[in-house]
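Consider the subject:
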Amino acid sequence: METRQRLLSLDVLRGITVAGMILVNDGYGDTFAILKHSKWNGMTPCDLVFPFFLFIMGISTYLSLRKFNFQISGKVVRKISKRTIIIFGIGLFINWFGLLLNGDFGFDHLRIMAVLQRIALCYFAVSFFALLANHRYTLPVVFAILVAYGIVLLLGNGYVEDGSNIAARIDKVIFGYDHLYHKSAIDPEGLLGTLPSIAHTLIGFYCGRLMMRSKETTDKVLHFLLVGGILVIFGYLLQFGLPLNKRNWSPSYVLMTCGLCSLLQGILMYVIDIRGKKQWTMPFLVFGVNPLFLYVLSELMAIAFGHYGINDWIYAGIHAVVYNTYFASLCFALSYVLICGLVGYLLFKKNIYIKI
């Protein structure tokens, strides 16, 4: 019973995160500042959703591989490799889908990296760490990665928002200009930033280990709150030397967002598992049990609806009733959440769980 409840709180947190990812990705026109990513240094609520997903994935990776006693085998390696390739491939297809609708059937201008590609690489790296390394070294590895990455940022113009940024230079050398993200100076899901994202996921993995080693649910809650509080404090202090920055996934950003997610997980576990207040969880649970499928659906919808003018039609209908452009944009984004949530609800009711 305890396992089921514990996983329920994790599914709810995952659902909140995925619904949030869809909400912030699918505005139209003028959008409230809190629903926009920070332009460079700093952090908005919008900047929490993707790092929250990676933190949760770290916990889930621990729970999943624990079933195999963290023993490497052909079966486990094939499972990890297959899932990595599928997630990365779907990410590439999303990038290609927009080109395809515009009549470009080639790959000459295909962006290589994006959200799903980073998820795939982090999953792959953390999974093999779980199988091959002593888990006592999780935090030392996280520390080493973040220290090394912080030095790279400071020495490589990592906080300069132009082509001299080391992240931009590495992506250009490895992928070539035509395969890069062109809406900002550096790719927010570029290759170099994947390194601290792996550390990010490892923190989630550590919290999963800490959770499973605690017998009482109260202890689990306290551990999440304690870890979360410590990480938020260190993230806040570190930002004075290495500012919060989502686009380069700075070390302070890793600590701050992991800390906030850990705090939220602790609160949800207290509310759902200890207090038993579950009535409100259904809308988020439908997102939490099919998270990547619904995220992919939202991305493909946004591309197709934009190409065929459906987005304009939906927004015009909303704006005819909601005159304020900011609220109209919010309602537009909520319509995407509602559509995906309806699909998720139908899958949930039929006990269909699409694992990507």
Remarks:
- The two ends are 26 Å apart (CA to CA).
- The chain has a mean pLDDT of 93.
- Residues 5 and 273 are 6 Å apart (CA to CA).
